[in-house]
Records
---
Amino acid sequence: METKKTNRKQIARIVAAAVLAILMTVTFGACKEEGDITPGPTAKPDDPTVIVNNEAPKQEDTISVSGYGEVKAAPDFSTIMIVSIGTGTTSEDAAAKCESVTERVKEIAAEQGVLAKNLTTSGVTLSTNTRESDGAVTGYVARETITIIEEEFNRVNDILSPIIDARIIESYEASYSLLDASAAYSDALAEAMADAQEKAEAIAAAGVLEITGIVSVVEAPIENRLVGVEFQSSSIAVTANLTVTYSVKAGIPQS
């Protein structure tokens, strides 16, 4: 009996060792080295689903109009330009006569209250008179430009009238200038905006639309708004030009 029990225990140990050996063989056989693993493509579904969101924001409805504003401004000062002239058979004689006229113009201007610091001269320039047949010089002409700056622009006529009446000058010209146009230009901009608003409202009403706001305002470039005007007028026009874009929406038709 004792021998049979011992044999059974030995058989059980042998069976257990065999089973353990088989399990270890399967486990180690399942593990591969990193170099033995070959990457493959990821499996893809037969019918993939693609969602694309390409919705653009709705275009805003707008009206673009131009606006124009003009303001009349009084000038800050005036510039008077007078040309004196002298003729003679020699250049010296012509120059001397021209200088004499210039001095007389200065005297008359001083009598009208023109300050010496506001009067300047350009210097004498000479030209010749020639005979058409052979081009020979027959005489000389001397000219000089006298410039007067007058801050009280309403005195221009008072200064010029006695000089013109003396009949000693060749020509004259007066222009008016505006040193600071900022205030007048601001008023012109306001008028331009009001003009644009009026136009936009008329267009919106015709199209059964309602203005909801201002999208943009573009100011037209100004090359020179300090423009002198002719002698007959002492009023300077300061202008402004705008392009205004308004946003609109559909309105309610009027019954």
---
Amino acid sequence: MTGKFLTAEARLEQLPEKRKWLTQDNLLYEYDDGILELTPRYLLTDNYTFPKTLALLTGDRSEYDVRPAHSHDLKCLTHRRIIIKKTRNELIEMGLLRQHKHPIKGWIWVCDDIPIEFLEVEKVTKWETDCQFKEMIIATNNIKKWRANMYRAGVFCNVGWIWHDKEIDLKAIYKEIIE
């Protein structure tokens, strides 16, 4: 079993730098055990990145749901994830997780800024990060399992993890760009 994304894909603002985007919306993922994870807006991301030779095997990365890449990017930059200390139903009751009428996609779920008293930062290992990435890829239901395995293998080889370990300042997550 895998968890599921509760929110639609974030709107992205393309930046002048090649292959750099800024997420405009909060991303919410629910694991099978009910744990909710937040990837806040204003995350600087490169979406999926892997060598062109691997792209020949896996296909054009731009056609895939990029939500797993955003969660993975945050965890790689910070070695942490943001857990929500409320349930999905509690967020809905508080109006923080709500439906929104999108002009093309119809009704989608969006997550407003969750007050920081409902958030908790949790350290994650590289292994956990990469496994959660694969789980999220499978949860999108638009990437074949063999491709998810290829992506998982690709991030396993990512040595960039070594150079990052940034603290997450919950007081600034909805105000500052996370890069």
---
Amino acid sequence: MEHTLRLITRNNAAYREVLREHDLPNLTILDEDSTDKASIWLAEPARAAEILADDDTPQWIQSVFAGVEPLIAHDNHDYQLTSLKEVFGPMISEYAFSHLLAIYQQHRGYRGQQAEKQWQRLPYCSLAGKRLLVLGTGNIGCYLAKTGHFFHMQTAGVNRSGEHPTEFDEVYALDALGEALAQADVVICALPATPGTDGLLNGDMLARLKPDAVLINIGRGNIIDEEVLHQWLLAHPDAQAILDVFQTEPLPDTSPLWGCANVTITPHMAGESMPDKVAEQFAANYRRFIAGEPLHGLVDFAAGY
């Protein structure tokens, strides 16, 4: 059976090139200006949601991102949706642990001393023995836990069910989040945006954190109450927040987080969708699709991920 593929990304030319290398059988990639309907879309979720209609619904959409919120929010769910899986763990671990090492190895302090031509050792602190709490125990969360073990950290995870992936020393159900936060030295949020995670780290939860905790958010911006976080950081100058995602992106100029000394802001870049990696997952899924087999990374519209 012949299938047609529509590319709906900012970088269609790159995706077209890498997909051709996979020599996928019975698949035609439509031209940019084609008005023909396609049975499969390889798409950025927001762009796909803008054009998805009842009279133009593919059989399957493969997202080029991990997050698929715009398609979850759309009324039309009459197709199979797969998100990008098992791609971002290494990149996000590099991001998170580069910041952690810089904090614990006193990079900022030594740069300040260098400017003053001071030769003085600052207190040594290691990741070893620190307690890492990862909110979300999916592929990214598990990779973060494995990286934590490499640095001899204690690892705990939080998920909805309390199910215990082997990568973690301990796992808490979501209703025990407060207890888990109170014990953590480092908290990395890797949760998707769902109604159940909206505002999860509110004032009550942030108040459970240690006064020198490090909070990293590479999940979604809806999870943290930014106004409350700003107040908590002002009250706890020894704490640090590394923020890559926000409620509104780009982060507005009016946000007080820009001027907060113990915040590091990055522009939603911790995990980059590389066309060659996306193409690898798409190609494997396409072969499952034409064989009638379950697709990898299939999204549950009701759960939101």
---
Amino acid sequence: MKVITVDSLRALPVLSGFFEKLRIENIIFAMDKPEIPGIYANPNIRLIFPLFGSCYHVRISLNGELREIALREGDILCCLPGACVQRVNYPRDASLSVAFMKNCTRFSYREEIETETVCFYHSTRAVSPGGHLQLRGLISFVGEKRSQPTLVKAAQAVFATLTDDLTRESVPGSKALQTFQQALYTMQNNFQKDINREDIAGKLQITSPHLSRLFKTFGIEGFADTLARMRLEYAAELLRETRMGIDEIAEQSGFQSSSYFIKVFKKFYGVTPTAFRA
């Protein structure tokens, strides 16, 4: 098999065509345990789906055991950080793989199923803040045991942002999406403070209803849940990495009371902060 690196002039039309035809019906998660002996555990989140008219056979860790599965059109394999994925060789198998790296997004694909040439394209920048947040939400949904329709919606949001990211490789994105990205950036830098929808809308010089519509159009969750998730992910990190008390963690994470923090934490994670830390 021949592997080549291609530039944007060659890659962008092909990738845009893939995404325009992409249909998502089922999300499968490759876990990090148990490991596949001798197979490299990729540290990056990856999304893999078969090209149209093809299957893709892989061996992965699924539900605590190693299994061989055949991805079909409509399936998306989401590889969590540290997951081992072993391709099982079938001659006509072909897929598009998207790896989210620190400084870029790496796409690997076959331009035609029949060819043995695999093309690699590296974007000029990492996934946009909106896409990064959407990915984190998709990963969080695994532990929250969300339904397939919710997972599919989250994956669709990721690919919508990826499509826009690819468009921005050559032309600027839409003004609405740029405003949404600015909203996320502002929230990420202020979530530890006592902020709300009106505060963020004011900083962006737009109305609160317009901000809500942006989250409905481009986000995987509404404004309130997105802000809560930012705070909870930070709180979860403090719970794992420090011995700070619950009251202090609630305050540091932007919650106005520890009782409300505990209530929201249990809603998202299914356990209290104390049980999460144990």
